[in-house]
């Protein structure tokens, strides 16, 4: 899928998609498990709906089995616990087993950037994810699982701004600012490599990390860490270094809808 440009070009793409394809997507039963960044994406979808009358998705926050008797694009914004990706996998699996798995056409779970930090055991987490998704595919063969890469943060601040902030924090006895450490983003990228290597070319992947790292010009937002190059979130897409602003959420929402239409 072409992702080098968005903005006006992507608006044109949405307008040029035949109504039959939008109607087909609107007939699906879809479930999206997420937390706060997912809310940004859902807001972006709602904004696209308000400006594109051909998008008639029944977007509802729910995980209740009774709501899936008809077409729905459901999302649940309290999946598991942040900083604990295993809890999100377990919660997602339980929701499927509680009656959604045999009703859904499409399901996907999105982790948050806070779920993966320096020192995280990404191999164990991915093994749990892979085995859990395999179980779902076996038990619910009519349901398509879309795999998401882990979203990113902006690059670590360097130079005098960071030095001054950390100096002030040191005087106050506070911890130095390391939330945006490149070491954390490196771990997210390494997890994404595991996912892309395992599922790439075999099962549908929505590579949100790659999209987040792609400027409107097509240039990638890249940083170097420990001898490797990794992706980072493009600053113009975010309001706080991680969550998506209006531009970012509309961009990712467009890409997700186009992706789902083409499944």
Search tags:
263 residues; Rossmann fold; two-stranded antiparallel ribbon; 12% strand; disordered N terminus
Give a description of the structure.
This protein is of the alpha/beta class and 263 residues long. It has one domain: SGNH hydrolase (Rossmann fold). The chain contains 9 helices and 8 strands. Strand 7 (222-225) and strand 8 form a beta hairpin. The longest helix is centred in the middle third of the chain and has 18 residues, at 122-139. The protein starts with 6 loop residues before the first helix and ends with a helix. Residues 1-9 have low confidence and may be disordered.
Please provide a brief summary of the model.
This protein has nine helices and eight strands.
Strand content: 5-15%
Query: How many strand segments?
Result: 8
The tally of helices reads: 9
CATH architecture annotation name: 3-Layer(aba) Sandwich
Rg on CA atoms, Å: 19 Å
Largest β-sheet summary? 6 strands, parallel
List the domain count as a whole number: 1
- CATH homologous superfamily identity: SGNH hydrolase
The CATH topology corresponds to Rossmann fold
Q: Termini, distance in Å?
A: 11 Å
Topology:
Blueprint: H1 7-16, H2 19-26, E1 29-33, H3 36-51, E2 59-61, E3 72-76, H4 85-100, E4 106-109, H5 122-139, E5 144-148, H6 160-172, H7 182-199, E6 205-206, H8 208-212, E7 222-225, E8 228-231, H9 246-261
Parallel strand pairs: 1-3, 1-4, 2-3, 4-5, 5-6
Antiparallel strand pairs: 7-8
Helix pairs in contact: 1-9, 3-9, 4-5
